[in-house]
Design brief:
about 90 residues, rod-shaped
């Protein structure tokens, strides 16, 4: 479940104002420590805007052939079908 920018900000404020430890407060809220610190660091560096949801990017895997290379291979195979046989 993704939290909104406002919800993240309120959690940061709760943790900052809590009289108990950060660990205990996060445990009570059900928030993982690394997740909280990612939000907190984004907040410290970019302010409230740093808490906005970032678009999910499609990552290219290290062994994935780029689309332009795939297209070039297909075209080469169509031009020279005998060369593409094992």
């Amino acid at each position: 479940m993704r939290l909104s920018q406002t919800e993240k900000f309120e959690i940061i404020r709760l943790v900052e104002q809590s009289k108990t430890s950060v660990n205990k407060t996060l445990k009570e809220l059900g928030i993982n420590k690394p997740t909280f610190y990612n939000w907190y660091n984004a907040y410290l560096s970019d302010g409230y805007d740093g808490l906005a949801q970032k678009p999910i990017s499609r990552k290219q895997f290290w062994n994935q052939i780029p689309n332009n290379e795939k297209t070039a291979c297909y075209r080469a195979g169509l031009r020279e079908p005998r060369e593409s046989l094992p």
